[in-house]
Specification:
The complex is a heterodimer of chains A (386) and B (292). By secondary structure, chain A is of the alpha+beta class. Chain A has 3 domains: 1-19 and 103-234, D-amino Acid Aminotransferase, Chain A, domain 1; 21-101, 2-Layer Sandwich (Dna Ligase, domain 1), CATH 3.30.1490; 239-385, 3-Layer(aba) Sandwich (Rossmann fold). In chain A, 36% of the residues lie in helices and 25% in strands. Chain A is built from 12 helices and 18 strands. In chain A, the strands form 5 sheets. In chain A, strands 7, 8, 9, 10, 11 and 12 form a 6-stranded antiparallel beta sheet that branches. In chain A, helix 2 (28-36) packs antiparallel against helix 3 and helix 9 (295-306) packs across helix 10. Chain A is elongated and about 80 Å long. Chain B is 34% helix and 22% strand. The mean pLDDT of chain B is 95. Chain B folds into 2 domains: 1-122, Rossmann fold (3-Layer(aba) Sandwich), CATH 3.40.50; 138-292, 3-Layer(aba) Sandwich (Rossmann fold), CATH 3.40.50.261. The longest helix of chain B has 13 residues, at 19-31. In chain B, strands 3-4-2-1-5-6-7 form a 7-stranded mixed beta sheet, with helices on both faces. In chain B, strands 9-8-11-10-12-13-14 form a 7-stranded mixed beta sheet, with helices on both faces. The radius of gyration of chain B is 18 Å and the shape is globular. Chain B has 9 helices and 14 strands. Classes of the chains: A alpha+beta (386), B alpha/beta (292). The interface between A and B is large, with 59 and 66 residues.
Chain lengths: 386, 292
Amino acid sequence: MKIHEYQAKGLFRKYEVPVPDGGVAFDVETAVETAGRLSGFPVVVKAQIHAGGRGKGGGVQLARSLKEVDQIVQKMIGTTLVTHQTGSQGRRVGKVLVEEGLAIAEELYLSIIADRSTAKIVVMASRAGGMDIETVAAKTPEKIVKVYINPLDGIRAYHCRQAAYALGLPKEAMKPFLAMLPRLYRLFVDYDCSLVEINPLVLTAGQRLVALDAKINFDDSALFRHPDLLEYRDLTEEDPLEIEASKYNLNYINLDGNIGNMVNGAGLAMATMDLIKRAGGEPANFLDVGGGASTEMVENGFRIILSDEKVKGILINIFGGILRCDVLAEGVVQAAKKTGITVPVVVRMEGTNVEEGRRILAESGLNLITAVDLKDAAAKVAELVA
Amino acid sequence: MSIFVNAKTRVLVQGITGKEGQFHTRHCVAYGTRVVAGVTPGKGGQEMDCIPVFNTVQEAVDRTGADCSLIFVPPAFAAEAVMEAVDAGIRTVVTITEGIPVLDMMKVKNYLSGKPVRLIGPNCPGIITPGEAKVGIMPGPIHKPGGPIGVISRSGTLTYEVVYQLTLQGIGQTTCIGIGGDPVNGTTFIDCLEAFETDPETKGVVIVGEIGGTAEEETARFIETRFSKPVVGFIAGLTAPPGRRMGHAGAIISGGSGTAEVKIAAMRKSGIHVCEDLGTLGEFCAEVFGRA
């Protein structure tokens, strides 16, 4: 799960990681009021969306007076911001963060991530702050220092010193940094984060360390033990069909194509999307109804695909294991009866109770196209596309 | 022959009295697997279809000589369940549970380091040696006993599809292993290949990978120098968009790494026979392994 910068900075404050003075505003009045109580000008206005690259897209602006704050926020709220991470459709800005401007001496990079291949928690530190860290990693990997921490042991003082020296901190900033990093690590562990990133971590002209930006991602699998994080979820950042699917515990992702598909199992779902592409179509979604789906889940999944206006045809591909083919067939029939099928549907089923499943579909009176195997399914999808 | 499990494997099921535990235990037993014990704290002394249930893994091991554990424990308690099995001396731990927090799995992985135990999974269908033992949730009848091909996969139903196509071509399997779709898992592709290399019955291997991480690339490098049998590779997720988690927690393209294109290129470079069309994978395998 992703959260906004202002929410991440709220968590930073809780863990005593220094952030600029400021606050979030959902409207112009609050923004001006917030700017008014800051220490002076300039102030920074930052669009709050779940995507990076805001600066280049005009989502971060300096204001030198309350009037300028008013003008900038007027324009920013309600606008659609396009960055390299939002895709061409962009994201609508619903709120802004108003913060004090700082005199910056140096921009550094600091992050903590869960490293899948080593099963270690990694602190990454670099003097090349403010830039896209993936570009730095690709072109000049030597500029990033990685400190590997065994999660069973936790962070130690020498880990922090390694990161501190990598950042080339001046003497005045050393002590505060060595106190801050363990707190940041604790935040990471306490909340089951998958990423905590400060880019840039700035050294001010007064040699103070401040997290100018803040990004936190959480491990979706661990959200069950952090009910307090649920209030951070921003539904306006999510696709309406994906929100609908999440109500039924369906793994659904809305995509740009025209062929809908419903599959059991994530790997087979991805492979089925690839199959659609090979047949000349474009997948309209990813939908894994899961291993143990009920008739109700199948019904809701199928209904969500049917409600997607760009869908011109549907491929259902089920390899019955735990999810039996008869359960699948029942769900499809229920959904079709309630919603009505307006586009051609190709069904390919194999595995547990396949005969029973085929019988239910055949006797339903629904106009379905059956495929005997995947090769046949692909050919029939190609016909849909043509 | 086979790897990791066979007809002699003595299986205990952690979480045997739960809905999934019961359902799959019955299917494993029906397949011929020697399920000797179950563990559910608080239900010790009961029986599930004549299988004795114990409160702790240690007690189950002491009383039944179980050497392999199959775990259906819910995500919040699964990491502990793995550690309990390890401490009780279980040598092969198969974890089916999906949705274990990453930090929990990282701790488990570090905990297992240096210990004589094999973890398979989590978030996997398990392992089957056709005709001998099924320690997992895969449909047994789609498999064909007797080899000569091994199957290793990161996913569940996609593995069934691949196995089924092999069986339809008349190609049997020695052992099929689902290593799981999570970012942090136990047994790797390479661990399985090392075992298949020394298994005389296995004449070739099918590797079913997917987007995310770098396991397939590392496996390709291993195969280039240290695996002598023919390998067919398939990668799911050519059409997956970057930054979106495709169902499996581990299946995500981030920062330009983990794409299907990069994995396929690495596999080709290592001499792996890459099949890009799942619809014809069975025929593809027949051709490659027929030649071998």
